Amino acid sequence: MAGLASPDIDEATEIEVGPPVGWQTVVWNDPVNLMSYVVHVFRTYFGFDAATAHRLMLSVHHDGHAVVARGPRELMEAHAQAMHDFGLWATVRKDPT
């Protein structure tokens, strides 16, 4: 092709890649759901054992919230939606770690 400049393929390009940004699904305390129901949701949806589900439920109850999952944003959004479907309050946020 006459008249078209070809790109310089010898040109080096540096790309800096930072650590991947992680995300969290956070379940918040609410005045509606029983503690036993929250444990049930955590066990059935996330597959937590009884002790882990109970510990996370107590964090929700006493601290007002608990991080129940960490991972890619799309997956954390799916988890938050699932928590909404179960009637729990949940949000997604960047993982500060």
Written description of the protein model:
The longest helix has 14 residues, at 50-63. The chain has one domain (23-94): Ribosomal protein L7/L12, C-terminal domain/Adaptor protein ClpS (Ribosomal Protein L30, Chain: A), CATH 3.30.1390. Helix 1 packs across helix 2 (50-63). A three-stranded antiparallel β-sheet has the order 2-1-3. It has 97 residues and is an alpha+beta fold. The chain is 40% helix and 20% strand. 21% of the residues are buried. Belongs to the ClpS family.
Identify the CATH architecture.
2-Layer Sandwich
Structural class: alpha+beta
- How is the largest sheet built, in terms of strand order? 2-1-3
Helix content: 40-55%
Q: Give a short account of the largest sheet.
A: 3 strands, antiparallel
CATH class: Alpha Beta
CATH superfamily name?
A: Ribosomal protein L7/L12, C-terminal domain/Adaptor protein ClpS
- Average pLDDT: 89
Would you identify the regions where 5 or more consecutive residues have pLDDT less than 50?
none
Q: What is the total tally of β strands?
A: 3
Q: How much is the radius of gyration in Å?
A: 22 Å
Number of helix segments? 3
Shape summary: elongated
Topology readout:
Blueprint lengths: L22 E6 L6 H12 L3 H14 L1 E7 L1 H13 L3 E6 L3
Antiparallel strand pairs: 1-2, 1-3
